[in-house]
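User: Run a structure prediction on this.
Assistant: Running it now.
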Amino acid sequence: MAIEIRSYRSVFELERRIYRVDRVRLNPSGVPVRGALYFVALLLVALLAAALPLVGMSLRLLPWYMRDLALPLGGAALLTVIRIDGRPFHLAAWSLLGYALRPSRIQCAGAAPLPLAQWRPGALVMLPDGSEARLRRMLCTGPAQARVAVAHERLEWRKRPLGLLAQRERLTVRELPGRRPPRHPQTIALRPGVRLRVR
């Protein structure tokens, strides 16, 4: 027979129990110390609630052994058995209380107001990184650097001297299919304003 132990914490996490008080032997399996603390806390809550004006009137109608013994004892037994996500009741209740009191959105150091409209991202620009076996059509304006790893030819178009017919300086890279790619990828540096068109 094999027992799978997922964590040593479960092996060494021993629950403290009370087996006897002086010469009086308690339950054979013992009473958890956590259960005794739950009982004391619930007894104090019952005594404080009995002193309140409205709630105390209904609690004072119960006999003292029901109010001060049976209800705290039954509540302590129930809280000792309850485990939320594998944690004891007091730890789980403390975590849930902290989660409920914490702001749902945090901005800088304080809570942020909820947005009135949903945020949607704009258009995404995706550029090839040059790792493919062919070139993709694209247009880029310098300053930039382009890395080309396939066989290609360059066509340079420079500004004309006439102002009206002047074109912006541009460079066209066209793939040469069927030719062997260069041994080392080539890098094309674009000056500011130069356009690179890949065909």
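The radius of gyration is 39 Å.
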